[in-house]
Amino acid sequence: MSGSEMIGGNTCLCGVMGDPIAHTLSPAIHNYLAKTLGVDSVYVPFHVKKEDLKDALRGAHGLGIKGMNVTVPHKQAVMDYLEYLDRDAAEIGAVNTLVKGETGYRGYNTDWRGLGQALAWEGVSLTGAHVVILGAGGAANAVAYLCGYEGASHVTILNRTLQKARILAERMAEKFPDTVFSSDGILGWKKLTGTGYLCIQTTSWGMRPNEGKAVIEDEEFYQKLAVAADIVFSPLETKYMKLAAAAGVKTFNGLNMLLLQAVWAFELMHGVKVTEEIITGARAYLKEILKDEA
């Protein structure tokens, strides 16, 4: 539904591309924002396979699609086909927001800002913290960048493919010399000494239809944590969060990050400002949607 509640000749089209894409809540957020702000826009999902990414971008630009969000597995690959790459997105090494330019799309990353604001909402500070990141994909790149930007003391990246974790850690260490970045395989958690870690889960493990899984299921791991954040938002409580909560750890899901990164993206696409009041309304709307799906 557009901001004017009627699709017409001036209605602009936006969307989100990924594979899979059926689970996305981005259309709900963007269409809510458009309707509330009176922006004449419709936002829809696009199921795009890896091998079709280049053609999809060319076709989208030709059709005049004003803006798009990018999700798994395209956040890094899309960088090869852009007219312009924002500095933060270039340093993160991943793009999640596209805005139509003259000859192609302009790439940005709003994930890191969304997560930073979501953490602040929860009263969690990264400054001086020892952070554990589970995963080394596009979302993990944004999280690692945020950790360095906010002055975390140490960031440990754990991933099933050690090489990906190592590359990410080395790249971020060059950008943020005051933060110690290290990497290991998933079982590297056993080397963590003491307690009080802030852990951010950035993989798709726990997301529907695999809600019964967690990257790490050993209860001993969760006893080392003080905070457990998950970027997954559906279900609202993942197995990772349940295991952490059982260990007495403060937990929260990815719903606020999803919402806040979408707000940043919406502002970039349409050149408008979303107020705190509208953000609060959008959050309540999302929670109702997820409650109905539970």
Structural description of this entry:
The protein is of the alpha/beta class and 294 residues long. The protein folds into two domains: 12-109 and 256-293, Rossmann fold (3-Layer(aba) Sandwich); 113-253, NAD(P)-binding Rossmann-like Domain (Rossmann fold, 3-Layer(aba) Sandwich). Helices cover 38% and strands 19% of the residues. The protein has ten helices and twelve strands. The protein has helices spanning 26-37, 53-63, 87-92, 111-121, 138-149, 162-175, 219-222, 239-246, 255-270, 276-293, and strands at residues 12-18, 41-47, 67-70, 84-85, 97-100, 105-108, 130-134, 154-158, 180-184, 197-201, 225-230, 250-252. The strands form two sheets. It has a six-stranded mixed beta sheet with strand order 2-1-3-5-6-4. Strands 9-8-7-10-11-12 form a six-stranded parallel beta sheet, with helices on both faces. The longest helix has 18 residues, at 276-293. 46% of the residues are buried.
The first-level CATH class name of the largest domain:
Alpha Beta
| CATH architecture identity of the largest domain | 3-Layer(aba) Sandwich
| Gap from first CA to last CA | 24 Å
Strand content: 15-25%
Counting DSSP E segments of at least 2 residues, the number of strands comes to 12
- Summed up, the helix count is 10
